[in-house]
Structures are given as C-alpha cells and as structure tokens.
Amino acid sequence: MSAISTAVVGALAQADGAQQQGHFIDRFIDTVTSPEAGDVVIDWFQVAIEWLVLIAVFAIPALMLIGGIRSRRWSVASGGLVSLLAVLWYRTRPNELIASGRRKFAQEGEPLECVNAIIDEEGELLECSSGLTSQVRQNTVLDQWTIPVGDWGEQTVRWVENNLDATLQVIKWPFSRLLDLIVDQWLVQMSWVTVCLMVFVIGWLVRGFAVGAMSAVALIGCGLLGAEYWVETARTLGFIAVAVLLCVIVGIPVGVLCGRVDGAWTVVRPVLDAMQVVHSFVYMLPFIYFFGIGFVSATMVTMTFALPPLIRLTNLGIRQVPEDVVEAARAYGAPERRVLFDVQLPLARPAIMTGLNQTLLLSISMLGIAAIMGAGGLGRLLYQGIQNQDIALGVSGGLAFFLVAVVLDRISQTDADSRNLMSRIVTAWSNRRTPEKLLEVAQSAATEKASRLAEEPEPPDEDFVPASGRERTSVIVAGAAALVMLVALLLPWSVDAGRVSAWARFDDADLRTEQCAGEWVDAAQLDPSGTSGSTSELACTGETQLLSNSFNGVSPSGGSWYGIFMAALAMSLLTSAAMMLLRPGMAPPWFGPHGAVMFASGSLGLSLAFLLTNPPSAVAVHATGIGVWVAVGAGLVAVASAISWLWNAPMTARRPLSARVGWGRLAGCAFAVLLLVIGVYSGWSYDTREGSVIGPELQAELDALEEEARAQARESNELAAAATAEEAAGNLARAEELRNAEIVAKQAESAASNEFTTKRSEAQRKGDVIFNGYQSDGSRLGIWTLLAGLAVLGLVLPGIGVFGIDERLRYRWSTIAGSVGLAIALASAGWIASIARVAEVNFVSGVGAVIAAAAGATIFASSRGTLAEFERNKVYGDIPANTP
C-alpha cells in the first residue's frame, strides 16, 4: 500500500492513548446538538402525517358527497358515497390473513386441507376458503397469478448459447482484440513516463500547453500512489479509449446514415429512445449472460450506454447543414461522396465533437458499473475498498479515479463549455434523450466569440512602461538573491544526521562514518571462544574514530524536496528578473512583480520550514549546515526586494475592481485557518515500524519469550537424542517416557513462539506512534503553519478593501497574503515529499500535512482572481509625450 493512502488511515487518530476524548470540534458539536431531541421531533412529525392521511381518507369522500348533493351533481355525490362506504368497509374489516396455496389444518381433531384459507394472526383457521374480495386485499394473491418472464428469458439465453455460439464469438472478437492490443500490449507494458508524455503531447496539440501540462501532472500523481495504482490507471485509460473508439466506429456512420436517410432515422430513433430509458444496470444482464464477466462485457455495456448521444448529435449535425450549400455542391457536379466528406461532415463537426465529448463523459460515469461486472481498472480498486471497508484503498483509488476523469474531460472539453467535471457529467446524464440541447450551448458560445472578435478595435501602437530606477534596482537585487539561494543548495544543510529524513529512516539518526585505525576483521576471529554469538560482524583491531558527514540542499538526507522546490522557485524568480530587465511587461503574468513576491516568499518559507522542523528524539548529534542559513538570509533579501519591486511597479487593473468589501475572500481565508487548526491536531507522522512500536518493557518480554522458546527447543532436541539412545539399548519404556517429554517440550516451544508472534503483531497493530503538528517531540511544523495562517487573516484585510478601495493597495496586499498561503502549501508539500523519498516500510507522513497544504492552496487561490486582473501600464505611440 502506498505511503499516501496509508497516511489517510493513521493520521486521523490521536496519540493520547486509549482514553481519547475526541477532537475539540467534535466535543463542541456534541455539546450544541441533541440527536435524541431530533428523534422526538421526527416521531411527532410521523404521527402528524399519519393522522392527516387518515383524516384525508375519510374527509375527501365525505366532501365529495356533501358537495355533490349541494350542487346537485349526482355523479359526484354517488362517487363520494361509494368511496366513503368502501373506506368504511375496508377500515372496519378484521385484519385477516390469507394462507396462500394448499395447507393442512387440524379441526376438531380431524385433518383438513384448505386452499387459500383465512387465518388469524396466530395462524389458527378461521375459514377454509376465502372469497375473491378477501384474496384481492392480501398480497399473497399475487403468488397465484405469476407471469413466467424469468423463465422465458432463461430459455432464450440457453437457446442462444446452444445455437449461436459462432455469432457470439464474432461479436466478441473486436472488443477482446482491441482490449488486448491497446490495454495489455501497449498501455500496461509502456513506462509510466512514456504514457504521461503522450498525454502531455495530446493535450498540448488538442487544447493547449496548460491543459497538456495539467493532464501530465495529474497522471504523475496517479503513478506516485504506487505501482498497483498506475497499472490500474493504464487499464482505465485503455478501457475508456476502446469504448470511445468503438462508439466512434459505430456511432458516426450510423448518425450519418440517419441524417441522410429519413427511413433509417425512423427505425433507429425508437431504438435510441429505448436504450436511453433503460437503466444502466439492466444493460449488464444480457452481456453478462452471453459473454461472462470481465473487461469484454463491461466494454460492451459502456459502449451501449454511451453510444446514443453520438448518433443523435451526428444525425442532428448532418441535418443542420444548410440545404442551399448541399444543393450548390451537387449543382457543380460533386458526387455524393464529396458532398458528404467535403461539405456535410466539416460543417457538422461542432455537433459531432459535442457528441464525442458526451460519449466520453458517459463512459467515465460507467467505470463504477464496469467494476461491478468484474472489469479491472481503478473502478475495481474503488469497489474493493468499499466492499472490504479498506479506507486507504478506497481513498487512493477514488483520488486516482477522479484525476483520470479530469484528464479525459479536460482534453475532450470544447472551448464553449468551461464548467467543472461534475456539472458536465450531470448535464450529460440529464440530456441523454435530448443531446441537441448541448449543441445550442456550443453554437451560442461560438457565435459570441466570433462577434466579440469582430467588434475588437485594431490595437494602437503601444508598448509597456519601462522599469524605473527603484524598480530596476529591486529587480536586480531579487535576481541576485535568487542566485545566492541556488548556490546555497550546494552547501551543507544537515551535518551528521538527517533533520527530516531521520523521521522516516532509522539509519539517518546518525550518519557519521566510523573510521578504523587498524583493520576490519570478522568479530569471530577476535573471540575464539564463540561468546560473541553466531552473527557475523566486523570489528576493528585498533581504535575507531567517528568522522563527520554533511549533506547539501537536494540530498535525501539534507534538504531533499525542500531544496528541490526552492531551486524551482529560485530559478523562476531569476527568470522573472531577467525578463523584466530585458523585456518589461512581455513576460507571462505570473512572471511579473506579484509572481516574484510569490517565488521569493515560497523559497523563504521552504528554507524556514526546514530550519524550524524539529528532528526526532533519536537524533543526538545533528547540526544545522551553513547552507540553510544562507538560504534563509537570501530568502529574506529576495522577499524584501520583491516587495519593493511590487510597490514600485506601475500596475493597473484591466477593468475596475468591485467597490464592495470582499467578505467572501475573508470567509475563505478563515476557512483555511480552520483547516490549519484541524491540521495541527491531526497526525503529521505515522509510525508503525517495529523499532518504534516495541518499547523497552515489551522488548524485554519478547526477549524472555524468545529465550524460553530456544531453551525448550534445546530440551526437545536433547530428549529426542536420549529417546533414540534408549530405543537402541532396548529400553522401550524409558524411550516412551522420553518421547512424551519431548512432545511436551515441543508444545511449550510452540506456545512461547506463538505468544512471541502475537505480542509483536499486536504491538504493530495497536502501538502506532503518531505525532501531531504541535507536540514537542514531533516535527512541530503544524504550529508554524497555523501561525502563518493567522497572520494571513490580518494581511488579507487591505486586500479585500476594508481600508479603502484603492486598487493598487488591494493588489499589493492580496499578493502578500497569497504568497504566505503559497509558502504554507509548499512547506507542507516539502514535508510530504521528503518523507516519501526516504521512508522505510510502515512509516508515512500524516494527513495533517495534507490538510495544511490544502489550507495554503485555499489562501493562495483566494488571491488569484484579484492578481489576474492586473497588468503593467502601457504607453501609446499616438499620444504626444508632453500630453498631461
């Protein structure tokens, strides 16, 4: 199981022992709520509803009777009278039961066989046969009038299996062959890096660089969950690809045929209506009966479910091609093949692409049902996690499932539809019978885009404002600080022990090298008596000396991912400074002044997080390297110069910001702080290693049990040898006694060994060592992230307009608040990644770090909207220089 998935299980627990009182939020909710009072309210509500229904049952016929008499509408009055009498008759009859079928009763000591007899609640006979009225009132009458639909279906399946086997194999062949080729031979056998690069290239070509990069990063996340998750991810991608490919092969030709031939549409339309009315679970039955369970039948079901929108929209696109265009093509002598491929299909492309996207979304929604049918993929992991109550498997499988769905949706999404994945899947489900409504959205968006482009005036001769003296100085200092941070990564960050890596790897608690003044020889050579034990160890013939070792900012035992992340941010800051000096304003928006503040703050946050991380108690010889202090100093200079750059940069919003105070942003930041509070109280490290969960007392017990087992084993061997000797001497009685004693010794040995295994397993299962974010013997990163989050609540106030509506003021302080959020997210991510890089089995980072990273990302995201509105001022060539 992957480290990320295991952390979800363990880090939600507290480390306070067996007498846990729950989280303070849980205690608060338990105090202010009362489920018992809610049950009382529901009971009263139930009684009220029952009385209202009872009154309505009598009142409605009575009102019909009275109203009909008063208005002289005798038909209404008659209906009301009949209904009232029926209700009275039904309510006043005793609660009798019907014994369905033939049953034997004892009446006056004589056996009596009755058909559909009336009995009381205790099963005593009331009447040997019941009338039709009594039977109709009882549900048991349904057993007497059954339609054997199930038997007919079974007969049909058996006939098809016995007589159409070759036909079934022909239908099955393209599905099984494509699945074997695309899934088993290609995607599963490829390197995960190759698949990620392929998805990146496809996304870049189809939707753009940003979508391609996002898709590749999402798939990399699936791979980092573990090798098992990556294999199932590849199978899921292949499964969707095969289903959509077959839908295209079948759906587009059928849609074209329906669009060009009215008779074909008359036949196909009712079939599509029936396919879209039937529930998806019903599709499973025939395919499972005919083709068994597995990938093939699941692909067939997915294709059948996702095919109708593609046929409908292809048909609609062909029919919406202007008739005059088609007639003009025919008038110029174009054959029907040219009319189709050169006129109708190109003009119907938007409709066909919308249908393809809806087919893809519906295929994604069928992955869960495919897992129930025995198909592999991420749906299987998710289904197993739910079925086996495996939280870690379910959460990790669900995350990978979500990432794959987002990747496929983003790549296939049209420019006209920018909604999120869940909204688009819901829309696809709700419009399965009327997919033409989806085309209206795409057409209106395309029309709006074309009109907007037509209305745009010709851009004047313009250029960005060049950097001023102070701004240029700030940019140069920020770039120099970035260079220093890169140099700091080459300097020592940890000396003699791993500050962060020692949490996840016992060997990193002391990384000094032992040097021998003599020679290293086998310890047995220095101890001929053999008292040193049977284990082969090396011993020094002379004096030993411990040599110090240091590790730089990117070494696993040094800065690890803290340094790697800092290197990326420092290079981004250096790039921002270089582009600002060479081509002011021409860089992408996030390489401007607010991006520089983000990069500098993130770098400073990473170096401070590493410096403030508390090493584990097992580390006694650790020293902080000079590289960390240089990185912190350079980070402070970079932050100060980047803020100066931000203050002096001539930035203006593209459109006026709202004059209202952004209380929503403040609420978002407050929610992020609440997440940080939860993260502080949640686990940041989760340790179930044997060396951690077995304390000195338990170790002494285990040693005693191990020694007892060895003693019993020696005694058993001695008794066996003695029994053999007695048997050889002919003393069979003595030999039998020794054999019995040998059996007792072996039983004692087995009992000691079992108790040893049980105690160790119980310690590993229940003796989890969990450190939250504020414990003094933990990493204590959680408390620092919380303090930074509390600072954001003050920093964001100018950014949301509490102290005025000055746009530049709001821009600057929004940048600072967002940069702190980015630093929180990166510090937490650095902890997670550094632990995962060196972690031994049964040690993982906790969910507290994940929550803190999510909180930092929330704070950062709350500022993105404001920052995206600003760009560097421009000067225009058609305006005189002396114009005021």
Outline the structure in words.
The chain is extended, with a radius of gyration of 38 Å. The protein contains 34 helices and 17 strands. Helix 12 crosses helix 13 (295-319), helix 16 runs antiparallel to helix 19 (391-412) and helix 32 (781-799) packs parallel to helix 34. Helices cover 68% and strands 8% of the residues.
- Spatial gap, N to C terminus: 69 Å
Largest sheet report: 3 strands, antiparallel
Spatial extent as radius of gyration: 38 Å
Portion in helices: 55-70%
How many helices?
Answer: 34
Instruction: Give the strand tally.
Output: 17
* Largest sheet: spatial strand order: 1-2-3
Low confidence ranges: 1-20, 529-535, 879-884
Assembly type = single chain
Structural classification: mainly alpha
On the 0 to 100 scale, the average pLDDT is 83
Q: Please state the overall shape, judged from the principal axes of the Cα atoms.
A: extended
Question: What fraction strand?
Answer: 5-15%
